Amino acid sequence: MTVTDASVxxxxxxxxxxxxxxxxxxxxxxxxxxxxxxxxxxxxxVYPTIRTIIRSFFGxxxxxxxxxxxxxxLFTTDTLTKAIENNAIWVxxxxxxxxxxGLIFAVLTERVSWKVxxxxxVFMPMAISMFAxxxxxxxxxxxxxxxxAVNAAIGAVKDAFGSSGVLLDAQAATPTLTGSPQxxxxxxxxxxxxxxxxxxxxxxxxxxxxxxxxxAAAPKPQDGAITGTVWRDFKPGGGKPGVVEPEELGIPGATxxxxxxxxxVVATTTTGDDGTFAFTDLDQxxxxxxxxxxxxxxxxxxxxxxxxxxxxPAVMIAYIWVWAGxxxxxxxxxxxxxxxxxxxxxxxxxxxxxxxxxxxxxxxLAPVLSVVFVTMIINxxxxxxxxxxxxxxxxxxxxxxIALAMWRTSxxxxxxxxxxxxxxxxxxxxxxxxxxxxxxxxxxxxx
Amino acid sequence: MVESRSAWxxxxxxxxxxxxxxxxxxxxxxxxxxxxAMTSLMPASVISQEGWWKLFxxxxxxxxxxxxxxxxxxDLVDALVTTAIIAVGNxxxxxxxxxxxxxAFAWLPFPGRDAxxxxxxxxxxxxxxxxxxxxxxxxxxxxxxxxxxxxxxFHVAFGLPFGIFLLRNFFAGIPKDILExxxxxxASEAWxxxxxxxxxxxxxxxxxxxFQFLWTWNDLLVxxxxxxxxxxxxxxxxxxxxxxxxxxxxxxxxxxxSLAIPLAVFLxxxxxxxxxxxxxxxx
Lengths: 447, 283
Known about the structure:
The structure holds two protein chains of two kinds. Chain A is α+β, with helices and mostly antiparallel strands. Chain A is 48% helix and 10% strand. Chain A has helices at residues 22-55, 69-76, 78-109, 115-123, 130-140, 149-160, 311-336, 340-348, 353-381, 385-390, 402-411, 417-446; strands at 171-172, 177-180, 184-187, 196-202, 226-232, 255-260, 265-270, 276-279, 287-291. Chain A has a five-stranded antiparallel sheet with strand order 2-3-9-6-7, with no helix packed on it. Chain A has a four-stranded mixed sheet with strand order 1-4-5-8, with no helix packed on it. In chain A, 40% of the residues are buried.
């Protein structure tokens, strides 16, 4: 859509004569068209802005003029400086991240056939309220891996790279086994291929025995291999320590390490359901077997996303999830406006895809990138709802941002309108550069 | 063509890693919303112990009980109605007021027009936080506090800068001849506005209406500040959220409902939404 110079539409050369009967009618028409909008803008935006600036120099109840006291309070109160600090982090991290992700997605979608589908999916969160997006991520970020999807995913990845045991209180039962759950256990007897390793543990509550455990099996000696069993060396009524007996369960999933005489680990394996394990194809020599401390790791209990130290990154992730689609759509539109032949020419000249991207695409997209960047800075300065819904009440102080601080100071029981106004003015001052940029861009486009 | 087909296969195969990456990203973007939908289908007794993926291993758990309970909760039903009234009402008023002003800025010359339009553009970025306290006092003294009308008027006012900006730019692009000939034929400005501008400006008006509808449906801050008993969905959920963890079986369906409607509007009118977005940010 092009912006034509609207003044051309003026009936050119209408003489400014008193005789013109249509003149006042035209004036009245113009006023009738404009008045509703102008009145509303004045009452709801212009007047309150001025009022807020004045109000920020008055105290809590508005009767005493306090000069800059509110501003001093603003920059010296812990929760408020924390809000400013957090907002600074937001401005430093989020706009750049959103623009980068948007650019990557915009470029990648050019190369697949289902780009409309992809863009719809990534853009979708834009339609959702910031508040609902926050609720969504609050649910995702629950600490308990049983309930929070993010921690469940992290837990699943961790499990895939090493099983985690739960035998925190285990002790050695076999006399030659020494160590502790923290350091792991080592069998002091040196072993040669063909021998067996019995590694009994006790002090394991029945509930801690890993799922799927079966009756322990005594290891069978095997040529050129060291076999062994890790089991719960305890049965009701006692039993003999160091001997696999009926009713004693194997410990599945325990990590067993085999070290050579020099002490370095030559092989690692995990035990089966009956607690047995085997190191096969060993060279001659002496070895030591041990149970790695990995077996006794504390189970993954979840990252505290909603706790005080990670709450701001957690809210940012939710926010980026919402806004990435905006950046992608705007940048994709910018990309499609780049003439194909410019890119083709660069490719013909032998530029790699990366060079084309770095040297041609990005510079040509710079104006659009800056629009995304500025828009995101304004948005990030005003971030509010999503903090309120992602952060539980207990960590809202840690996640505080300027807009939230303004609301909490003014309306959430504190009701200090003087300080609240000062915070609002700070917010206003911070967006003024963006305001100036908007006006300048408009003037440039009009001329 | 055999050669080109095999070339096509080879090319698709070479793109497999990219395809997989894109599928992964798309899944990443879908899972959170999907998870909330699944959570809203879980029985209250299970919700506090199990994640929503439990429904995959035990689909028989899925139930609509939470939705039934929600619709039995008169607070939430009222909130849904309130949200709809605010969102639809303010959108209609905004479109009318912004279109009138947009037409004046595009086609009715008056002294100081360009300067005034620049002021409107300046108002685009004014954070609504600067208006909260004075309007709070104003509403308290005029009886507009805690009324649907008060919320509607506030939303209209803060939608105006963008609305006027968008519509003025679009109206200015309407061919001059159409308007000129109507004027020569003696048509009044009101006739031109209703019969020419509104129909011709429909794409931009649709963009604006969708934006404003979504923005006000999704609002929390304004309603939280100027309402007490008048609660849209977001505020109703917010008050439930203060006891989070104990009543997620109510929060999850309510949140899903509150996002399902804007999502449906977005999917139905995606084209206008994107157009408006581009006009607002790039142009």
